[in-house]
């Protein structure tokens, strides 16, 4: 029976090794399930061994039980299966532990907007930071309006470049994005955005970057060089405007709702595909979520334009990017 238990444990270890070699995002769950099977199987084997031993001892004359008498014999022979059961259960608990935390996701990142990136098809919402929306306008030091959401997205894309980003998952938001802390090397990208003034600390969900926000504000970096509406308030104002209501005020004064688009801008608000003309004159379109979408700025006075569908872009003479 001891040999059977050892064989059983060896088989479990081999099976476990195979699972590790085929590691996937579901690895913690697989390990927990494997550990449970090992524990249950080992416990069943121990019970079978104990039952067989009890039957054998019942049929053995008293003078052949063991050197130290019945009590000593039982103490020696039953100690081994008890220890095996303890080891199996300990193994189950230790293997279940990784299920409590997910492994970091590492890879080349595409910037979706100032606080959202994508790695290998998974979208990550950066924890604790909120950057202006893509269409949001802010004012610079001189009072001139600029697209602060585009500036934040472009800055993040330039910061990442061709480097590998590592994201530590925390939870999932209502848009099914993975909320995470993402790093480029040892640098916390979430904190970098706040510290450079491209975004602000999202206190509703985390206070981790409040100190960095205070430093950026004191130095008048990024958004703090001029005036802006907090992104969460801007989003509320946009929804309120769509329903015909005025936006509420905030801690820094009245919050203006986004300006209603005029006839000349209606095409840019309804269509999301960017028709860009590069330095060599190539007409290339970029769809939302593609590699260069966030960093591409459309200047309609230069002949660039927006499209509502890829078919429309093709018909107008634009092509998709290569590679």
Description:
This protein is of the alpha+beta class and 323 residues long. The chain folds into three domains: 2-100; 105-228, OB fold (Dihydrolipoamide Acetyltransferase, E2P) (Beta Barrel), CATH 2.40.50.90; 263-315, no CATH class. The protein is built from nine helices and 13 strands. Strands 1-2-3-8-7 form a five-stranded mixed β-barrel. A three-stranded antiparallel sheet has the order 12-11-13. The protein has a two-stranded antiparallel ribbon with strand order 4-10. Helix 1 (2-21) runs antiparallel to helix 2, helix 2 (27-58) runs antiparallel to helix 3 (69-96) and helix 5 (189-195) packs parallel to helix 6. The chain is globular and about 60 Å long. Residues 5-32, 60-100 and 243-269 have low confidence and may be disordered.
Strand order of the largest sheet: 1-2-3-8-7
Structural class: alpha+beta
* Total number of beta strands: 13
Principal-axis shape equals globular
CATH class of the largest domain: Mainly Beta
CATH architecture of the largest domain: Beta Barrel
Runs with pLDDT <50, length 5+?
5-32, 60-100, 243-269
Count of DSSP-assigned helices: 9
Strand proportion, as a percent range, falls in 15-25%
The succession of helices and strands, N to C, reads HHHEEEEEEHEEEHEHHHEEEH
According to CATH, the fold-level topology of the largest domain is OB fold (Dihydrolipoamide Acetyltransferase, E2P)
Overall pLDDT score: 72
Tell me the helix content. 40-55%
When the domains are counted, the total is 3
- How far do the termini sit from each other? 61 Å
Largest sheet: 5 strands, mixed, barrel
Radius of gyration: 31 Å
């Amino acid at each position: 029976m001891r040999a059977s238990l050892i064989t059983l444990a060896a088989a479990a270890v081999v099976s476990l090794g195979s699972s590790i070699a085929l590691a996937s995002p579901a690895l913690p769950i697989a390990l927990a399930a494997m550990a449970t099977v090992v524990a249950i199987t080992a416990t069943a084997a121990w019970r079978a061994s104990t039952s067989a031993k009890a039957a054998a001892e019942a049929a053995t004359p008293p003078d052949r039980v063991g050197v130290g008498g019945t009590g000593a014999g039982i103490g020696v022979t039953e100690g081994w299966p008890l220890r095996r059961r303890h080891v199996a259960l300990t193994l189950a608990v230790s293997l279940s532990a990784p299920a409590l935390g997910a492994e970091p996701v590492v890879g080349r990142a595409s910037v979706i907007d100032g606080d959202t990136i994508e790695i290998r098809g998974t979208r990550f919402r950066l924890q604790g930071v909120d950057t202006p929306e893509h269409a949001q306008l802010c004012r610079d030091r001189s009072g001139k309006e600029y697209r602060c959401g585009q500036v934040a997205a472009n800055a993040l894309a330039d910061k990442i470049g061709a480097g590998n980003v590592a994201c530590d998952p925390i939870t999932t938001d209502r848009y099914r994005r993975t909320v995470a802390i993402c790093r480029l090397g040892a640098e916390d990208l979430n904190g970098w955005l706040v510290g450079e003034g491209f975004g602000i600390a999202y206190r509703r969900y985390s206070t981790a970057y409040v100190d960095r926000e205070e430093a950026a504000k004191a130095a008048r970096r990024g958004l703090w060089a001029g005036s802006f509406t907090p992104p969460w308030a801007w989003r509320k104002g946009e929804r309120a405007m769509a329903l015909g209501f005025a936006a509420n005020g905030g801690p820094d004064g009245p919050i203006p709702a986004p300006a209603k688009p005029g006839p000349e801008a209606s095409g840019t608000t309804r269509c999301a595909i960017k028709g860009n003309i590069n330095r060599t004159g190539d007409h290339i379109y970029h769809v939302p979520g593609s590699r260069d979408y966030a960093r591409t700025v459309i200047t309609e006075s230069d002949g660039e334009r927006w499209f509502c569908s890829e078919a429309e872009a093709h018909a107008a003479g634009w092509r998709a990017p290569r590679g």
